[in-house]
Amino acid sequence: MNPELISKMQEISPEEQSYLDGNATVNKELYTSEIKFEIDRNRFLKEGRLITVRLHSRFIDFPAHRHNYIEIMYVCQGTITHYLDGKEVTLQKGDLLLLNQHVQHGVRRAEYEDIGINFIALPEFFDIPLQMLKENNTLAEFLVNTLRQNHPVSHYLVFRLGENQAIENLMENMISSMLNNE
User: Alpha-carbon Rg of the chain, whole angstroms?
Assistant: First the structure.
C-alpha cells in the first residue's frame, strides 16, 4: 500500500490520544446515544450516502458491541483480532472481514502499526452488486440471507486475500477517495 497513505492512516486521532493518555474505556458518546452499545450509523454516514470509511481506533480493547449497519474491515497493515461467537478471529494484512448488521463482536487492542479501515455501509449499498452476482455463490447467499435481518444473528465472512496486488490497489483507491472526501 502507498507509504504516504499508510503514514496518513497512522496519525494518532484525538480519540486515540485520549487512550494513550490513560483513558481506559471507549468513549461511547462518539458512537451512540443509546445506553446499549450499538454503534449508530448516523454518527458516521452523511445524509444521502450509503457508505463511508473510518479508521479503526487503536490503543484500547473495543468492548462487545453491535452496529445498525454492515461493517467491512480491511487490514492495511499489521494484525487486528476480533472476537466473534466465542472465538478469536485474527486478521492479517490484506484480510477482509464482512460483518452482518447487529452482530455482536469485540476487537482486541491494536497497536500503532496495526492499521484497519472500517467501511460503514447501509444494506442498500449492496443492491446493485447483489443483482450482478450469480446464484449459488457464497457471498450472494450471505448478502441475501443476512444483511437485511433486524435481529442479532452471528454471521460474518472472512476473506484471506493476502497481498493480492489487484485487491490492495482497489482498496487503496477506495480508502484514499473516501478519506479525501472525493
Answer: 16
Domain that holds residue 174: 3-179
Please work out, in degrees rounded to the nearest 5, the angle formed at the alpha carbon of residue 59 by the alpha carbons of 3 and 68: 90
Residue 135 pLDDT more than 70? no
Q: Which residue has the cell 452482530?
A: 103
- Domain at 118, CATH number: 2.60.120.10
Helix spans in 85-164 (H): 127-132, 138-146
> Domain total for the chain?
1
Joined grid coordinates for residue 118: 472500517
Between 3-10 and 165-179, two packed helices, what is the crossing angle to 10 degrees? 50
Dump pLDDT digits (tens) for 50-84. 888 899 999 999 999 999 999 999 999 999 999 99
| Greatest distance between any 2 Cα atoms in the chain | 51
Q: Kindly state the cell numbers that stand for 168.
A: 490492495
d(CA 34, CA 16): 22
Q: Which pTM was predicted?
A: 0.84
Counting Cα atoms < 13 Å in the Cβ hemisphere of 32 gives: 14
Residue with cell 483480532: 81
